[in-house]
Design brief:
2 domains, mainly alpha, receptor, Rhopdopsin 7-helix transmembrane proteins, transmembrane helix, transmembrane, two-stranded antiparallel sheet, transducer
Length: about 350
């Protein structure tokens, strides 16, 4: 965090990050891999969820919402890759910087809230099946919940939408994008505290606790009166969701809180660690299709149909090739033999 760029000098940790070419390349490579997996996996998932899965249950609606946020992240990552490879120099202007930053954080927090919503829906459907039995009402609640999630996230992230997030660093000759924040982005320390509290506790810690409770309750219920396959899928789903929370979301939010407190009150920095955690937070978009697979029976069936169709088409192609070569050899065999006999010298 800084005042105006003319009198500002980088702290050692941030300068080390900007000058560390290996870290920049490593982060860029991770972003490239995430982009490829994100666009492929979530593109297929969106097609299955929208055009091949019916009826549109609340879980499917939540999954569509999650897929759209993941695809938005996949579309924004190439800009971040270019920014990294150019030595943290942003040349697309303040508005595009705001858009890219907003996409990063809306993906994270909308994903967290959507996973919580999917967990609540499974909890009500398995642990409390007598509640919310009317599908039509549940669909309207699901749509309203998605809109509410976006509203809550955008309201918390409002300072990012109204601030110029670019910053000139004269000593390095670069213009950063959301790597150096202005202290006057928020007017007081109380406003900064409210901003951080909303991001870390409201948008992360509370949903994490609710999601954990829902999946533990579902596993406990299924362990008593469920088939082994259904119980195994529920355990795998809970494992993937909690893995996403602990690996992708928890480090970033914890480091965000620690770095900001250290920077505001002690003039210390954890920025390199925070930057790496932000990179790993994007991995959630690669793991989300696995959540769809274990959470939705319809999604599993449609995906298996596509895989089986692809395998059958490949086998048909192989059979055609084999039949073609066998027929070709059957025709060519006697003719070739006759030609060889006719070319043999006479022994009379």
């Amino acid at each position: 965090m800084a005042g105006n760029s003319s009198s500002f000098k980088l702290d050692n940790a941030t300068r080390a990050l900007f000058l560390n070419v290996n870290t920049s390349i490593a982060i860029s490579v991770i972003y490239m891999i995430v982009t490829a997996i994100n666009l492929t996996g979530n593109g297929l998932s969106l097609w299955l969820l929208v055009f091949r899965t019916s009826p549109k249950t609340p879980s499917i609606i939540f999954m569509i919402n999650l897929t759209l946020t993941d695809l938005a992240l996949g579309a924004a990552l190439p800009f971040q890759i270019a920014y990294q490879l150019q030595g943290y120099h942003w040349n697309l202007g303040p508005n595009m910087c705001r858009v890219m930053t907003l996409v990063f954080y809306t993906n994270m927090y909308c994903s967290i809230l959507t996973m919580m919503a999917i967990g609540i829906d499974r909890y009500l459907g398995i642990v409390r099946p007598m509640q919310f039995r009317q599908t039509r009402v549940r669909k309207s609640i699901a749509v309203f919940s998605c809109l509410l999630m976006w509203g809550v996230v955008l309201s918390v992230l409002w300072p990012l939408m109204t601030t110029d997030l670019t910053f000139d660093v004269p000593e390095l000759g670069i213009t950063t994008c959301f790597d150096v924040l202005k202290k006057d982005m928020l007017p007081t320390l109380s406003a900064w505290a409210a901003f951080l509290f909303s991001m870390v506790f409201v948008l992360f810690l509370f949903p994490f606790c609710v999601t954990t409770f829902c999946y533990v309750s579902v596993i406990h219920k299924l362990s008593r009166d469920s088939k082994t396959a259904q119980k195994r899928r529920a355990i795998l789903l809970a494992f993937i969701v909690l893995l996403v929370f602990t690996v992708c979301f928890a480090p970033n939010n914890i480091l965000l809180l620690a770095h900001t407190v250290l920077r505001l009150f002690y003039n210390e920095s954890l920025y390199m660690a925070y930057k790496l955690s932000l990179c790993f937070s994007c991995l959630n978009s690669c793991l989300d299709p696995f959540i769809y697979y274990f959470a939705s029976k319809d999604f599993r069936q449609k995906l298996r149909q596509i895989i089986n169709l692809s395998i059958s088409m490949d086998s048909m192609k192989m059979d055609r090739k084999e039949s073609f070569y066998s027929a070709h050899n059957a025709v060519e065999g006697p003719v070739g033999e006759q030609r060889r006999l006719s070319l043999m010298p006479s022994t009379a």
